[in-house]
Each structure stands twice: as structure tokens, then as C-alpha cells.
Amino acid sequence: LIVFFLLSRTTKRHCTLYDGQSCSLSGVCHIPMSEPFCTKTREVLIEIAKKLGLQCHSKGTVITIEGPRFSSRAESLMFRSWGADVINMTTVPEVILAKEAGMSYASIAMATDYDCWKEHEEAVSVDKVLKTLKENANKATSILLTAIPQIGSMEWADTLHTLKVSTLRSVSTGDN
């Protein structure tokens, strides 16, 4: 899945570059997250996955949970009712920080299990996740090794300018 939307159920993570600390950027950033992932980068990843003959869903919603525990069945069913296609512990805060930094960012989600919402499947376990993760690593590596040169050869000035302007317009310093 090349992630399109995101939901966050995290509360304990550092999710901004503008947190008032001495080493942080000044102001408050109200970054728009209607499209959290870079469309141009997503399109490259989708194209490459298809060229490589990999099963790839081009749109889907990820929900990031705090972890490290797995979801309860009730939580998983609730997340599905909210429209989440994937449950993970790793997309937030990365996508938010990248957006605030004006970076082009996309996320590849490779399923390792059905979580516990699917009643007739084996319950999720660390062993099962690690086994499937190893199998998916080759697919992810193939996508990235093919996509990176293509991304590197593309013109990014307009995209990066748009991202930078979006961030600049989102920061309130008290002076504006």
C-alpha cells in the first residue's frame, strides 16, 4: 500500500519542529495535513511497484497507534470502522515532521498480519510479524532501489517550493 491518508492515535511522541525548545524552530506550525504524503513521490512508488509486478494498492489509510502493544480486537474493529486499512506504529511523527520541514515524503506499508480483527486468522505475534517482514524486505528493497534513481533524475524545484511555501504560511510567530 502506498499510503494516501493517515489517522493518528499517538499522544506521547514529539510531533513538531516548533515545540518552544531552545533548539526548535520559533513559532507555532499549523501544518495542513489534508494531503500528508507527497503526491509526486507517491506516484513514482506506485509506478515502480507496478513495473516490478508487485501487488500494490495506490490509495489507503493508515492509523498509527502508540504501541508497543498490538491492538485489541475491539480497537482493530473500531479502526476499521474509521476507514483504516493498515494499523502501524511508525508513520507518525515522521510524516508530520517531514511536512513541517518542507520535505517530499511518502510511505510504503507492507502488511505483516491481519491484526486481530479477522476472527478466523491466527492472532498477531512478534514471530509472525518478523517472518512476514523478512519476506517483504526484498519487495521494499526492490521498489526503493528502482525508485531512488528515478526520483533523483526528476525535477523537484516546483514541488519543493510548494512544500516550503506551505510550511512558511503555516507558521505563526506572534509577529504575523
UniProtKB/TrEMBL annotation:
Keywords: Glycosyltransferase, Purine salvage, Transferase. Residues 28-148 form the Nucleoside phosphorylase domain. GO terms for cellular component: cytosol. SUPFAM superfamilies: Purine and uridine phosphorylases. It comes from the Eukaryota. GO terms for molecular function: S-methyl-5-thioadenosine phosphorylase activity. GO terms for biological process: L-methionine salvage from methylthioadenosine; purine ribonucleoside salvage. This is MTAP phosphorylase. It comes from Odontophorus gujanensis (marbled wood quail). The lineage of its organism: Eukaryota, Metazoa, Chordata, Craniata, Vertebrata.
